[in-house]
Amino acid sequence: MAGARSAGARRPAVRKALAKRPATGRAATAGARRKAASENLRFAGVGSAAVQRATGRAWNEWLTVLDRAGARLMPHKDIARLLSRKFAVPDWWGQMVTVGYEQARGLRAVNQRSDGFAANASRTVDISIARLYEAWSDPSARARWLPDAPLEVRRSTGGKSIRMAWMAGASSVNVSFHAKGAQKCQVAVEHSKLASATAARRQKAYWSNALDRLKALLEAGR
């Protein structure tokens, strides 16, 4: 009996020691896969690591937090307001997290925004930002790589951004310029207010090809 009691007394300690052991085999593999999957989540065109840096939470955390807050039943503006007021998420990131949540929960299609669908494309070019901006802002320079595009400039901020209307429909094109060094910069295009996911895919291909032409033209003329 004493031996039995002694063995029984040791069992909790044994269980505790076993609980502290690192997971091995299938358990470790499954855990690694779950961790990798959560880190690789990407919604609204933004990766989980970028969301965590900007908001303090990764995508898997935001999905859990917003589910608990009842966001599945909320309209877009109420989710964004919740993120801003309760969680102090900056306005732009609040919109990104809201759109990403809606995509993840099947409330919004990929590339769909509150005002329609959007297509995005960007390129980094080994050229000064002044020359890159000129290639967009000067109509004759723009025609060399973007001929016959139905665009009308509505507003421009020198070296920073250009807003244009796409006259073949009711959509908009916003272009932003970002310096990456003295002779390197990035141009980012967002074509928004598109009518469908099909239109968004078509315009994404259109702008990707156009930016390839622009990059080749400018870098060849250095």
Topology:
Layout: H1 2-20, H2 25-39, E1 42-43, E2 46-47, H3 48-55, H4 59-68, H5 76-85, H6 91-104, E3 112-113, E4 116-125, H7 129-137, H8 139-145, E5 151-157, E6 161-166, E7 171-181, E8 184-194, H9 197-220
Antiparallel strand pairs: 1-2, 3-4, 4-8, 5-6, 6-7, 7-8
Helix pairs in contact: 4-6, 5-6, 7-8
Describe the structure.
The protein is an alpha+beta fold. It folds into two domains: 41-108, no CATH class; 113-220, 2-Layer Sandwich (Alpha-D-Glucose-1,6-Bisphosphate, Chain A, domain 4). 52% of the residues lie in helices and 23% in strands. It contains nine helices and eight strands. It has helices at residues 2-20, 25-39, 48-55, 59-68, 76-85, 91-104, 129-137, 139-145, 197-220, and strands at residues 42-43, 46-47, 112-113, 116-125, 151-157, 161-166, 171-181, 184-194. The strands form two sheets. A six-stranded antiparallel beta sheet has the order 3-4-8-7-6-5, covered by helices on one side. A hairpin with a 2-residue loop joins strand 3 (112-113) and strand 4. Helix 7 (129-137) packs across helix 8 (139-145). The longest helix is centred in the last third of the chain and has 24 residues, at 197-220. It starts with a helix and ends with a helix.
